[in-house]
């Protein structure tokens, strides 16, 4: 697809299967076969896909660790008239995958950016969700642990829209535990595992019931997970003046969860209402 020196090439952002080769669109396969090369997050996986498609287009590595550097080289090639396809290791680029730097630089350089839509774990999970998804917030992978993750969960606990998260198998239990503590075990969610693959599993329940399903191995800790959790339906309940004063003092010295536990024992109000009040209070401080 070489063009005259007076014209730029096109950047194609191509979605590829997340597990089932039959999800590859005819258009995506055609584009991958006619571009000059493919910028791929994982060249080994992309070469496997290309072999299955009978495509011989060359690849070059483009991932989180070299994204900024390689973007400059790809932009130079595009300016030289080459057509380039951008793919992630599976699914749609930029959806919790590299692509931002290259796409932004392409627009800045006046290069045409063309989406080739297709598979995405996000859209697949939304399509089978048992919670409302007319509007939703996509957070992708949360910080793996520590204060930053807890602060993020506390923010999401107040979110009115449904929230979509990705998680790896070795962290799924700890994430659900933290979500249950922060959002309450009765918060509804859909959890999807190994979407489009042989052992695909989609379950709907509450944080409490889904955690129980992991404990009895109804849901194995294997494969990649997508979580769609419903938004907060109720505003924080009112608490009395004494409890409010105690919570104000405790959250200055203790983590929110511990402060709610201590305050509940001191004033005899529910831990859940005190925790909800604490979230609102922290947001104002």
From TrEMBL:
<feature type="domain" description="Tetrapyrrole methylase">
    <location>
        <begin position="11"/>
        <end position="210"/>
    </location>
</feature>
<protein>
    <recommendedName>
        <fullName>Ribosomal RNA small subunit methyltransferase I</fullName>
        <ecNumber>2.1.1.198</ecNumber>
    </recommendedName>
</protein>
<dbReference type="InterPro" id="IPR014777">
    <property type="entry name" value="4pyrrole_Mease_sub1"/>
</dbReference>
<comment type="function">
    <text>Catalyzes the 2'-O-methylation of the ribose of cytidine 1402 (C1402) in 16S rRNA.</text>
</comment>
<dbReference type="InterPro" id="IPR014776">
    <property type="entry name" value="4pyrrole_Mease_sub2"/>
</dbReference>
<dbReference type="InterPro" id="IPR000878">
    <property type="entry name" value="4pyrrol_Mease"/>
</dbReference>
<keyword id="KW-0963">Cytoplasm</keyword>
<dbReference type="InterPro" id="IPR018063">
    <property type="entry name" value="SAM_MeTrfase_RsmI_CS"/>
</dbReference>
<dbReference type="Pfam" id="PF00590">
    <property type="entry name" value="TP_methylase"/>
</dbReference>
<feature type="domain" description="RsmI HTH">
    <location>
        <begin position="243"/>
        <end position="282"/>
    </location>
</feature>
<dbReference type="InterPro" id="IPR053910">
    <property type="entry name" value="RsmI_HTH"/>
</dbReference>
<dbReference type="InterPro" id="IPR008189">
    <property type="entry name" value="rRNA_ssu_MeTfrase_I"/>
</dbReference>
<keyword id="KW-0489">Methyltransferase</keyword>
<dbReference type="GO" id="GO:0070677">
    <property type="term" value="F:rRNA (cytosine-2'-O-)-methyltransferase activity"/>
</dbReference>
<comment type="similarity">
    <text>Belongs to the methyltransferase superfamily. RsmI family.</text>
</comment>
<dbReference type="InterPro" id="IPR035996">
    <property type="entry name" value="4pyrrol_Methylase_sf"/>
</dbReference>
<keyword id="KW-0949">S-adenosyl-L-methionine</keyword>
<keyword id="KW-0698">rRNA processing</keyword>
<dbReference type="Pfam" id="PF23016">
    <property type="entry name" value="RsmI_C"/>
</dbReference>
<dbReference type="GO" id="GO:0005737">
    <property type="term" value="C:cytoplasm"/>
</dbReference>
<keyword id="KW-0808">Transferase</keyword>
């Amino acid at each position: 697809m070489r063009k005259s020196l007076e014209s730029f090439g096109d950047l194609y952002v191509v979605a590829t299967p997340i597990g089932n080769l039959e999800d590859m669109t005819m258009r995506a396969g055609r584009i991958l076969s006619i571009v000059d090369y493919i910028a791929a997050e994982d060249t080994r996986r992309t070469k496997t896909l290309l072999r299955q498609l009978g495509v011989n287009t060359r690849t070059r590595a483009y991932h989180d660790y070299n994204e900024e550097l390689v973007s400059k080289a790809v932009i130079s090639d595009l300016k030289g008239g080459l057509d380039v396809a951008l793919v992630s290791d599976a699914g749609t680029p930029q959806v919790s995958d590299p692509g931002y730097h290259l796409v932004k630089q392409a627009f800045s350089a006046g290069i045409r950016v063309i989406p080739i839509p297709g598979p995405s774990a996000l859209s697949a999970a939304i399509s089978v969700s048992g919670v409302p998804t007319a509007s939703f917030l996509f957070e992708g992978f949360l910080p793996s642990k520590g204060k930053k993750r807890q602060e993020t969960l506390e923010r999401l606990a107040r979110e009115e829209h449904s929230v979509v998260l990705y998680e790896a198998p070795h962290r799924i239990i700890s994430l659900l535990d933290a979500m249950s503590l922060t959002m309450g075990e009765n918060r509804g969610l859909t959890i999807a595992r190994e979407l489009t693959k042989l052992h695909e599993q989609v379950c709907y329940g509450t944080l409490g019931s889904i955690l129980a399903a992991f404990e009895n191995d109804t849901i194995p800790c294997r494969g990649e997970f997508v979580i769609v959790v419903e938004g907060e339906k109720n505003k924080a309940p009112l608490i009395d003046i004494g409890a409010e004063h105690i919570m104000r003092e405790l959250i200055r010295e203790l983590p929110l969860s511990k402060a709610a536990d201590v305050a509940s024992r001191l004033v005899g109000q529910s831990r859940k209402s005190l925790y909800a009040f604490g979230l609102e209070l922290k947001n104002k401080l």
